[in-house]
């Protein structure tokens, strides 16, 4: 079976944007591939180095979210980056052969530094972010990496580094040390938050997988709608309404068209329309919530699953590093 690997930084609990983007895809990949999914806590530190206090909480939170949506520790290896020190060892070795200019030209390097100009990010760790990501991927000899568009330059860099490593340390008559990892582009759908902007923790407009039924409704009820629909008797335009964008993800076509018609003719009010959406979102969220409440009854279970995953990951990285040390001709 070919291998898939992907990671998430533990920067907060997961919301329905993550579900529709990454998680539903990760879930399905489990049927076809040997999957490795991990919490990239070192990567989170590259920008959160001065506020590490939430990392542990978010790590447990996200693994709980993963299990709740059906990532299956029997089939997939779920693990924590910082528990597998070989990622760092490989990063050091790769750093010897990676020209600084390759890292400096990765677009996210300049972009994120501009977005976060209040923070000192002229650090070695931040510049090296995509190289650590390379180590994460190739240490498992992953063939495919499901990621969004924003990560494509990082995958490109990882292939360049792999080619350089293989040609520098590989021998002509044996297999290359590392395969070149390919991205599996995850269509990142634009999921609007309750204020109409992209759903994001930092905008405070997200519906979380762990939200209770009441919390979901309290967020949907005041959600932004077609601004032209001021009064109940004003007809609206679903094309201009973020609530309707959510309907497209959650509500079956027939029901959705009915709501759209009701909107255009002022036959239904926005609250009616949101109630329909709420019921549909609940069909997705309530089984997730049920699994979460089971997990919350056994708080040690999540930690145990992570530590079992770490052991499985460790076995793979130990094997790879024997080959790597041999290739680099280190004493062993
Ligand atoms: N950079 C990724 C992100 O921000 C997280 C990540 C770290 C990752 N290491 C990885 C993703 C390896 C895929 C493979 O989303
Ligand atoms: Fe949006 Fe629905 Fe209100 Fe129309 S009825 S404006 S689609 S919330």
Shape: elongated
Largest sheet: 3 strands, parallel
- CATH homolog superfamily of the largest domain: HUPs
The N- to C-terminal Cα distance equals 30 Å
Account of the 3D structure:
The protein has helices at residues 16-29, 41-48, 55-68, 86-97, 100-104, 107-115, 124-127, 129-138, 152-169, 213-220, 242-250, 253-264, 270-297, 299-327; strands spanning 3-8, 34-39, 77-80, 144-147, 182-185. The protein has 2 domains: 3-191 and 298-328, Rossmann fold (3-Layer(aba) Sandwich), CATH 3.40.50.620; 211-293, Orthogonal Bundle (Tyrosyl-Transfer RNA Synthetase), CATH 1.10.240. The model has no long low-confidence stretch (mean pLDDT 96). 54% of the residues lie in helices and 7% in strands. Strands 1-2-3 form a 3-stranded parallel β-sheet. A two-stranded parallel ribbon has the order 4-5. It is mainly α and 332 residues long. It contains 14 helices and 5 strands. The site of tryptophan (TRP) has 12 residues, from β1, α8 and β4.
What's the helix and strand layout?
Elements: E1 3-8, H1 16-29, E2 34-39, H2 41-48, H3 55-68, E3 77-80, H4 86-97, H5 100-104, H6 107-115, H7 124-127, H8 129-138, E4 144-147, H9 152-169, E5 182-185, H10 213-220, H11 242-250, H12 253-264, H13 270-297, H14 299-327
Parallel strand pairs: 1-2, 2-3, 4-5
Summarize the structure.
The chain is mainly α. It has helices spanning 16-29, 41-48, 55-68, 86-97, 100-104, 107-115, 124-127, 129-138, 152-169, 213-220, 242-250, 253-264, 270-297, 299-327, and strands spanning 3-8, 34-39, 77-80, 144-147, 182-185.
